[in-house]
Amino acid sequence: MSTLLEQAIHAHGGIDNWDRFRTVSxxxxxxxxxxxxxxxxxxxxxxxxxxxxxxxxVAITSTAGGWRGTFEPDVVGIxxxxxxxxxxxxxxxxxxxGHTQPTRWDRLHALYFTGYxxxxxxxxxxxxxxxxxxxxxxxxxxxxxxxWRRLKVTFPETIASHSREQVSYFGxxxxxxxxxxxxxxxxxxxxxxYASGYRNVRxxxxxxxxxxxxxxxxxxxxxxxxxxxxxxxxxxFHTE
Length: 240
What we know:
By secondary structure, this protein is mainly β. The chain has a single domain (about 5-240), classed as Lipoprotein localisation LolA/LolB/LppX (outer membrane lipoprotein receptor (LolB), chain A, Clam), CATH 2.50.20. It is about 15% helix and about 45% strand. A hairpin with a 2-residue loop joins strand 11 and strand 12.
């Protein structure tokens, strides 16, 4: 494990504390320009989440929308809360073949993307210490009057996420500031994901707010439009 990753894990609460937990639950709102572009505005406003932390399994419930969905890497499904017919898609990543950034999505496209994205975000940086992940420290980055250390992370093929290679930026306090990736299921669209509003939740430092923008060829953030917003209203970790 790299020194930077060790420091980041310690700053976020430590691996021993993290390993106590098996699941996470949350209430949150997701918005931004991407959802209008994809034809699914407000789909993830006012949702509840329940996720496993040792495997990729996420359940999302929208009381207002009257639906409940589940994500796993090999299958996503969504149905009405009253038990009415459920839509399901196996090998869901195959359904994005030929997609570009403006390609419209159905609800299962949106659910797969959101499921793997939230699972990834909630597990960083502890996720990077798992078997199969490779890390490499990059030169420092200067932004917002701060110096951020950067860690390039190569994901194993067994983990569904935006792309195989991603970069996390950590402040002098060791907390995640920014997370860069390209989005394979959007034809390689770029995302610079800014984490802020940290809260101590059972000893884990969690960013309650995330804002995602595009970035240019020099890795500089493009301020408009705001692509994705994520605001957690509550979050809790559980040992069972």
